[in-house]
Amino acid sequence: MSRLLALVAVAALTATACNSNYDRYRLRFQAAQTIATPNGPVTFAVGPNNRVYYAELRTNALHYVDRNRVVHDLFTTQDKPDSLAVDHHGVVYIAARTRKHRLTVNAYRSGNPEVVWHGPTTHSPVHLAITSEGELVVGVGDEVLELQPTHKVISRGWADPVIAAGRSERIWVADNEPPGGKERVARGRETNHAKRNRFASVLPPFTNPSDATVINDEILLCSRTHHKVYRLHIGLDEVARRRSFVGRLVCDRDIGSLTDGSVITAQTSVIYRYPPRR
User: Fold this and answer.
1) Mean pLDDT over residues 250-269, rounded?
2) Given this model, what pLDDT does residue 144 score?
3) What whole-number distance in Å separates Cα of residue 43 and Cα of residue 94?
4) DSSP code of 170?
5) Does the pLDDT value for residue 16 go beyond 70?
6) CA angle 137, 142, 145 (to 5 degrees)
7) pLDDT at residue 154 is higher than 80
8) Which long-range contacts (CB under 8 A, 24 or more apart) does 139-146 make?
9) Measured torsion, CA atoms of residues 93, 29, 25, 235, in degrees rounded to the nearest 10
10) Does the CA dihedral 201-181-214-189 come out positive or negative?
């Protein structure tokens, strides 16, 4: 009898250990589907009706892909696009730099640009995003700013910030620290630098985050260096804790998500869709 009880205890401990390693939030995806083969590298954003808008960096031409994978031509911009965002009404916002590296953000409602913001002269990467509340935000240099509906600084002290919009007004920011520094993912509206770092998650060395998206309570972050997608789970305490990279997904620039849970990634001359595995 004592031997039987010992066996039961060992089995219970084994089950507990197994369960402690079980990740119930793990995301699973099907094999990649090619939805577009652009002319070279692109920057893209997901708009209404799950349309994927993308701008070709070689030709400055803007297109979108509909749910049937049909590519539609839109227009060509004068300056090279750096980042793209599309709001809930289908207005396209493009951040571009002139040949003298002067940054401008324009809105395109019918193919004609309307200046939203004249930014600084910069060589730093630029990142646009639309929050769930419809705010247009930009990360550039060491700042995250709101450009619409009001113009204000949201937070400072970043290094080439990459923005992902979460639920409500929440935004998450991934830092691009110089080699040797710690790259983090933290709450984007936290203005206290020490508090922000205390509740941040450190990324693997040399991640070089290029874009991020949020699916439910999961942040998916594209690594330009490793060509992988890392996942961070947002807990009830509003801290994004890093998990492992997501299998199957490859990415080296932009990443986005559709309303059905699919993930969109881009590599040179190809845009992929990864449907969720149910």
Assistant:
1) 94
2) 97
3) 10
4) -
5) no
6) 20
7) yes
8) 139/163, 139/173, 140/103, 144/171, 144/173, 144/188
9) -10
10) positive
Compute the distance between CA of residue 104 and CA of residue 3 in angstroms, rounded to an integer.
75
Partners of 223 in the β-ladder: 209
CA 265, 49, 78, 114: dihedral to nearest 10 degrees?
Answer: -130
The sign of the CA dihedral 45, 50, 56, 62 is negative
Q: What is the mean pLDDT of residues 95-105?
A: 88
Query: Exposed, middle or buried: residue 23 (CB in 10 Å: 0-12, 13-18, 19+)?
Result: exposed
Element (H, E) at 11: helix 2-21
- Per-residue model confidence (pLDDT) at position 11: 43
| The model's pTM | 0.88
Amino acid identity at 20 = S
CB 14 within 8 A of CB 32: no
Q: How many CB atoms within 10 Å of residue 98?
A: 12
pLDDT value for 209: 94
